[in-house]
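FORM 7B: Structural annotation worksheet

SECTION A. Query
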Amino acid sequence: MSERFGDVSLTTGDDFVATIELHRPPNNFFDLALIRSLAEAYEAADARANCRAIVLCSEGRHFCAGVDFARPSPLPTSSAELYGEAERLFRARTPVVAAVQGAAIGGGLGLACSADFRVASPEARFSANFSRLGFHHGFALSATLPAIVGQQHALDLLYTGRRLSGDEAARIGLCDRLVDGADVRAAAHALAADIAASGPLAVRSIRATMRGDLADRARAAMAREAAEQDRLRRTSDWAEGIRAAAERRTPRFEGR
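SECTION B. Predicted structure
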């Protein structure tokens, strides 16, 4: 059974695993509409009796390269509007396994970290590149990233904006399964099927206990992140960071 929500598809099979796929190849940049569609797909999966686990994946070369800052108006007037839709992902009840092929960059990393698990290959790339743009991180990475990799690794990634390979991501716990590139989606599905084979009431109950107030913490984190993003978008450093990224050069920040 398949259903479409804008550029997001939801397909369920006979093994109680739903596949939710982004269809904006090759980079799967997101905007308000895509995150809203993704939230609608999650909520539809929650409501299906034949869905006990979700594989989140993407069509194209990359899992998600975040926001396309090369567009004339890449973000809503306020980041809070986008994050209001993102909060719905954290409130969904079904476990999610992200199949990360290629890059998960910026907000794309935030999307990957909203899932319960991440499966990737050694060739995958992960980066919280916000600081390299003169920007504050977002998509609740303040709440999710330290819980996944620990405070010090999170500080390293957020302060430097550096890129990690799939190998390094696996070493620090950002990636839960490391497989050959051609096997990423199959391995993510296998993990989701293992989850779906357990008692569905028990899994949802355990997940609710283990995630605790994550949705509330994500909401609070995104409120802070949105305010800082909106403030920093008015700075010269932000303009320089975007120019440098477009010109593929090292930014020359002046702290203003």
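SECTION C. Observations
Strands lie at 2-5, 8-12, 17-22, 53-58, 96-100, 103-105, 117-120, 125-127, 163-165, 177-178. The chain has a mean pLDDT of 95.

SECTION D. Sign-off
Analyst initials: ____
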